[in-house]
Design a protein that fits this description.
Blueprint lengths: L10 H4 L3 E6 L3 H12 L4 H6 L3 H19 L2 E6 L9 H15 L3 H31 L3 H12 L11 H12 L28 H6 L13
Antiparallel strand pairs: 1-2
Length: 221
């Protein structure tokens, strides 16, 4: 019983951290990208190919290359136990506290620990006031977003299993009246069959097909 390993593991160890990359669109980066696009000779792409698809792909790839070169990219690591009120400033203060603990400086560690604890209390208070403001403003969307973030609820995205078949059926329904028109000869005509009768017509049938005399118009008074 002493050497048994517990089956419980921390949630932080079960889930890997999520690494996200995003671009910092500062004013300097925007001006640098705008200057790079302004000095570009776009006629080079037009003269290189006659295909619209190749021209579009070349221009799009060049714009993406200029964006990657001019706009800086930042990386953020999100752990599974991150709290919504834990900001980047708190991460920096916690890093300073850990460095002070590793340096074995008691005075520096005490000061950094006090700053970190005070910043945590302030961050929790600000986040609580933000939730109260959302509730008082009847902003239900923000409230439910905060509840999902606190409870870590991630709804499953509905996905249809017959996407292709449904798209084909919808396409056939919309194009049911369309047909290729090549000319009057392309329209199929049903053959007209004339039956010639050798016997003379009967009086009843002859009277049925007899012409009716027109009704005279009334004379004006």
């Amino acid at each position: 019983m002493v050497h048994l390993i517990p089956s419980y593991r921390h949630k932080l160890k079960l889930c890997k951290p999520v690494v996200r990359k995003f671009k910092k669109w500062t004013s300097e980066a925007r001006e640098k990208l705008q200057a790079c696009l302004d000095c570009t000779d776009w006629d080079v792409f037009k003269s290189a190919t006659n295909s619209l698809d190749e021209y579009t792909e070349a221009v799009t790839s060049y714009i993406s290359f200029c964006e990657d070169s001019c706009v800086p990219t930042s990386t953020r690591v999100s752990f599974n136990n991150d709290k919504p009120w834990f900001t980047a400033e708190l991460r920096q203060l916690r890093r300073q506290k850990d460095q002070a603990f590793e340096s074995e400086d008691k005075v520096l560690y005490k000061e950094s620990k006090y700053r970190f604890s005070k910043a945590v209390r302030d961050a929790k208070r600000l986040y609580f006031e933000k939730l109260q403001q959302q509730l008082s403003a009847n902003d239900s969307a923000s409230v439910w977003r905060g509840v999902r973030q606190i409870t870590n609820y991630k709804p499953k995205t509905p996905h249809s299993m017959n996407d292709l078949r449904l798209a084909d059926e919808f396409n056939d329904y919309c194009c049911r009246f369309e047909c290729q028109w090549d000319g009057p000869d392309s329209i199929p005509h049903s053959p007209i069959i004339l039956h010639q009768s050798t016997s003379p017509p009967s009086p009843s049938s002859a009277g049925a097909h007899a012409s009716v005399p027109p009704i005279p118009a009334p004379h004006p008074r």
